Amino acid sequence: MSKVLYIKADAKTDNESRTFQISNSFINSYKELHPDDEIITLDLYKEGINFLPQGKLIELHTPKPGEGKNHPILKYAYQFAEADKYVIAEPFWNLSIPAILKAYIDYVCVSGITFQYTAEGPVGLCTGKAAINITTRGGEYHSSSASVYEMGDKYLRTILGFLGIRDLMTICAEGLDIIGNDVDALVGNAIKSAKEISKNF
């Protein structure tokens, strides 16, 4: 049995969010295909994730043995480390990810829990795990000239790789705010891809 951590980062509700239309379809399909797996949903807005509080950064660098699973900051890093698979759902905002998702990542990246420093440099402790990033973009960033502006999926791939997660896929519906595009078709195609990918995730 695998433990799946479903991380949601959109200020819109499930009914309003085009991102969540795709990610919820993925999760529902995954549940049907993998009924024995545990899915933990973490909606960052409902959770009230905030920036790291001033004066608390030292706690992320010096966690005490046995401390953390009920700690208001460290509990997120432990929860992340205990998961086997990750589904991250977020819109593309201002050429990157929503700030709340970056704030959450700052909670998750804790030396000794999700990565560690060694004589050879930092080493990720979340090896052998898989992740999928589900995102939506108003513009189109797949061409070589526009791809330089895409810093959302790139960042997630980099930071997850830093934590040791090398198996990462992306489902993206883009061009959703371009006048004349068939938005329903674009989202629908992404949902089809999501359901197909859920079979072997």
From TrEMBL:
* A GO term for molecular function: oxidoreductase activity, acting on NAD(P)H, quinone or similar compound as acceptor
Which residues take part in binding FMN? Answer: T136, R137, G138, G139
Its Enzyme Commission number(s) read: 1.6.5.-, 1.7.1.17
- Per the database entry, which stretches of residues form a coiled coil? none
Output the Pfam families linked to this UniProt entry. Flavodoxin_2
Ranges for the Flavodoxin-like fold domain?
A: 2-190
| InterPro entries in the cross-refs | Flavodoxin_fold, Flavoprotein-like_sf, FMN-dep_NADH:Q_OxRdtase_AzoR1, NADH:quinone_OxRdtase_FMN_depd
Alphabetical keyword list: Flavoprotein, FMN, NAD, Oxidoreductase
**Which metal ions or organic cofactors does this protein require, according to UniProt?**
FMN
Q: Which family does it belong to?
A: Belongs to the azoreductase type 1 family.
| Binding partners and assembly | Homodimer.
The free-text function statement in the UniProt record for this protein reads: Also exhibits azoreductase activity. Catalyzes the reductive cleavage of the azo bond in aromatic azo compounds to the corresponding amines. Quinone reductase that provides resistance to thiol-specific stress caused by electrophilic quinones.
The protein, known as: FMN dependent NADH:quinone oxidoreductase
